């Protein structure tokens, strides 16, 4: 069931009335032999390439390439300096400081809350259930007249599981604000992306990234997919040249390697299952949670001791034992076969020593 969603009803007045900055590259589009409009260094750059020139402010070439891969028109794509930029813009566009609130469903990605505090938006928390699924009744009770955004992460970080699709659709169909689904780990999941639902739900924003499966964490390139109306809000607020020229060029090259990325995904999923099976057999591992991501959450009898032991072996995992509902848990990224072998050897040594 589609949602009757009114974007203007939740857009901040100052953003609605904002006249965005117009850069030289916004005002002129096309080819020219003499560019004297942007106060660039006309002599060139110490680097090979046109780095003396400002990049395309709307990254059109890159969006066209992504459009072919994702099956979404370029007008429905926003590119940000990591997904964190998109998250921050959502707060600045839709949450009046000191007035509006968002709903988070812990345990979840920590930047939603950090960005809320930076933008002075109140946070309402509705914990996931014991099996890390949505508490629909609790979410419904938490919503009030000033609730602007509900953030959902699926597959979820740090738990690794996907949220039940029908529960997410229930929220999309009934909530009158924005529903943001963060799919940073979707490439590793059995569940299909919500991108295909953009035409069904005008209040839907899907976040993805090139940092995980695509192996481009160092480029800091995040993606938001939404209605054209919402994307226009993103573009109105973002800095003029938020994605630099080098990132755009390198991302375009990377996107030619879909087959290689799919090979990495298959191997990661295979290694994930092997790692999960081995972890489950260890006496000090109480539970290995199902994962749709490139990491595993494992509940242990002595997380800090195990973490410190692995550090001594130059193996770094993430201690999540102080996170609500993740007591006693370590989050372990799935490495290469060689890295996973070293990890398992260290775990066997730990088991023998303890």
UniProtKB/TrEMBL annotation:
MF terms (GO), sorted A to Z: transaminase activity
Broad class of enzyme this protein falls into: transferase
Pathway assigned to this chain's UniProt record: Lipid metabolism; Amino-acid biosynthesis; L-histidine biosynthesis; L-histidine from 5-phospho-alpha-D-ribose 1-diphosphate: step 7/9
PROSITE patterns: AA_TRANSFER_CLASS_2 (PS00599)
Entry EC no(s): 2.6.1.9
Pfam families per record: Aminotran_1_2 (PF00155)
Domain Aminotransferase class I/classII large per the UniProt entry, residue ranges: 49-347
Gene3D superfamilies: Aspartate Aminotransferase, domain 1 (3.90.1150.10), Type I PLP-dependent aspartate aminotransferase-like (Major domain) (3.40.640.10)
Listed cofactors: pyridoxal 5'-phosphate
CDD domains: AAT_like
Catalytic activity: L-histidinol phosphate + 2-oxoglutarate = 3-(imidazol-4-yl)-2-oxopropyl phosphate + L-glutamate
Family listed: Belongs to the class-II pyridoxal-phosphate-dependent aminotransferase family. Histidinol-phosphate aminotransferase subfamily.
PANTHER family assigned to the protein according to its UniProt record, in alphabetical order: HISTIDINOL-PHOSPHATE AMINOTRANSFERASE (PTHR42885:SF2), HISTIDINOL-PHOSPHATE AMINOTRANSFERASE-RELATED (PTHR42885)
Record-given protein name: Histidinol-phosphate aminotransferase
UniProt source species: Parapedobacter defluvii
